[in-house]
Amino acid sequence: MLKISKKVKSTVIVFLLMIISSFAFGQSDTNLTRRELAVKAIENSHSVKIKQNEAKASHFDKQRALYTYIPKVGVKGGYAYLLNDITISRDISGTKNQALYGLEHSKNQSLAQLASSGLPPTMIGVATPLIEGVYNNIGGMVNQIPNTPSISIQDNNFWFYDAYVEMVIFSGLQAPTYAKAAEAKSEAQQAMVEQEKNEIIMETLSYYDKMAVVNQSLKVLEESQKRLDKQTEFANKAKEVGLATEYDLNKIRIAEKDIVAKRIELEASKSLVIQKLQQLTGLDQGDLAKINPELTLWMVDENEINLSNRNEIKALEHSIEALEYKHKGEQYGALPKAKAFAHVIQGGTNMTNVDAVPFVGVAMQWEIFDGLQRKREVQKSELAVISMKEKKAYAQDLVQLDFQKKKMEWQVATQMVDVSNQKLDGAKTGLKIKVQEAKNGLTDVTDVLDEISEYEKFQLEYIQSIANQRQTAIALINAMGVLNIEHIQN
């Protein structure tokens, strides 16, 4: 057999311990903090994703408005069956008159040349009527041509296409104005996304603290059970010497059943809290069940107050900005619009083909009177701006009132924690006195059980008071306008 040296053995043992410790560390790292859970809930939120998509859609509207200035390229084509023959007519009256004038001028020149040619008078007398006859005959033929001759094409199958490039060069300032309106609308929607995140944070922390309440309440029940075990031991010994009865032991058993019932209720509540946290975060229930949070007071720095940073106010401010730009855009509708274009048009029939006709140009459109439609739209957009400003003023009043209310609730909840703590100290002292009196035979088991129940009640009340204080604290931070992930205390 191979012998393994002590050095090798110790090295293997150390290596195994490192693996075990790293595995154990990885296993214990499932206790998620409040901040981590809030981040998971935001990432998993369907409502946040929907609102984010709405904000993105408004951002796309901004881009679409600016795309107005991008050239558009296209091709149009078509086919038509003509119910009548195509007739091409042209007015040639001017050309015909010019031809007649030219003939008359040529005749006169010919006669003048003949007269100066030096020919015998007999020859001139013979040639003159011939020249006049020829020119008069040609002039008569030209005169018989109609002023608007036409050609009829007997082919009813007609096709055509138009390749074009168009670009807006002036939109009457509407495109950039509507782009700014869409951008402001997107920012308003983004503010509502942040508001939705804040609501998810508050809801997640609420259930996280409920988990802490349940866990610490279960610990209170365990402590109560230990006290009852001691009382059972004490009662059994007291019964042997005649200082306790079966009635006392029965009261202890009833108290134990009461603890069992409370534990069942708490476990059911814990299961519901875990399911809700899973729905919020998408995490595995097994990992959520391992969470064991603590409850501590949440102190708030009131100097951080920034009510103008409330997401509701920011959303209204951006909405006002969007409506103001929309109002300007409606007013700019009275300005002319212009675009540049280039076309290549070609068409024909089976028997006739028209060569491609390219042309470029600039077009302008100016609607001088639209039946007062634009005026009404301008008036409506102006009223929308005024109404939104009124909503903002009303919201600012509500925000101020909400802040004062949340501040008072937090102050009251913080004071109630101190009151609950004092009541708990009093119940703890009373329990110690009763236990000591029972040992000295000055009181019975029933009184001790009542004190145990009273102390347990004040313990649970103290735990709940801290949870309430934490809820009012995060509500106050949200009302101050400064709630975000960084403000979450673990």
Automatic annotation (TrEMBL):
Pfam families: OEP (PF02321)
Cellular localization per UniProt: Cell outer membrane
Keyword Nucleotide-binding belongs to the record: no
Highest taxon above the source species: Bacteria
Residues annotated as signal peptide: 1-26
Keywords annotated in UniProt: Cell outer membrane, Membrane, Signal, Transmembrane, Transmembrane beta strand, Transport
Transmembrane parts of this sequence: none
Family: Belongs to the outer membrane factor (OMF) (TC 1.B.17) family.
The protein's name: TolC family protein
